[in-house]
Amino acid sequence: MPKAEVILSTWENSNVEGLSFDKVVFSKDPGGVLLGEYKGKKYYDNMNRQIVSTREGLVHATRPFCIKFRTDMIFTSTRFLRYYDRYPKKSSLMNFFERRIITCDSFTPNPERLVPKPFSPSDWFHFGLTSDVRKLWDIPLEPKEYSTWFCHHPHPPDVKEKDIMRYRAEQYIWLSCLRKYTDIPCEHQWDYGEHNRELHELSLVNNFIVLSREQVGIKFMKYGIGIRGWVAFYTHYEWQELYKKYCDPEFSITPDFETRAKNFLAAQIRKRKWLDKMIAFFDYRYNRITEAWNSEQRWKNLELLFRNAFKKS
User: Fold this and answer.
1) What residues are paired with 103 via a beta bridge?
2) Is 47:142 a contact under the CB 8 Å cutoff?
3) Contact assessment for residue 6 and residue 22, using Cβ atoms and an 8 Å cutoff
4) Chain segment 27-62, per-residue pLDDT in tens
């Protein structure tokens, strides 16, 4: 995309020397909310940072189409353009954008499989009409109490996760956008069932196209995706199933091996607690090592990681 307009949206007093862009936007950092610390690493809710930096960058976009893109990813191709006009039909329900926005499967969980978290299209990559992407990100800042919601409210009785946030970042973005137009019953990140299943599916298929990272043409440089995450995410085939169900009953789909593999693994993980624990053990360490390896201070962070691993708890 040699003629693209590159807008870098970052914080006041950031050093942007040597970076390539057409425009730079400096915003006041709204800060993150500390969620906790584990093995020497602090974890923050950076939701409002993402809203501010994205929204302010979009203000300065002058082209009819735009891409919301993380600076820790790189393009490997422009394959996503092949899919933009491939799905012309829409349902009349839950249709809020002029045209669909392309997003990726990473962190777009299928709530029917392992992670019952609806209304969660990935926030990594968004391509579409600039007017539509602006609609998506024209949302209020997240209330601070949402970051530590389950420190002050009881967890749902059937939830084993220890996450303290009311909504995941992807959910907060999409629910905030949807609630500008209609009421959505979703009280917390695990609130999924017959009362909102159809709303979730309609909102996803009518407003987004879900593609794999390979289909989009992006590579994430920060950390890898573990086994459990990979199993949990939607496939493009499953998104096409929703398209056929709600938008075009005559649409033809070719079954894919990936979806079958994910469904098989999900069934095994649900049945075997030891397998779930083993995968969680592997995923955590794989992600931390990958993150350290891809960091600017590779060897220092790897050394720190392995030192902490052998400390007595």
Assistant:
1) 210
2) yes
3) yes
4) 999 999 998 887 677 888 999 999 999 999 999 999
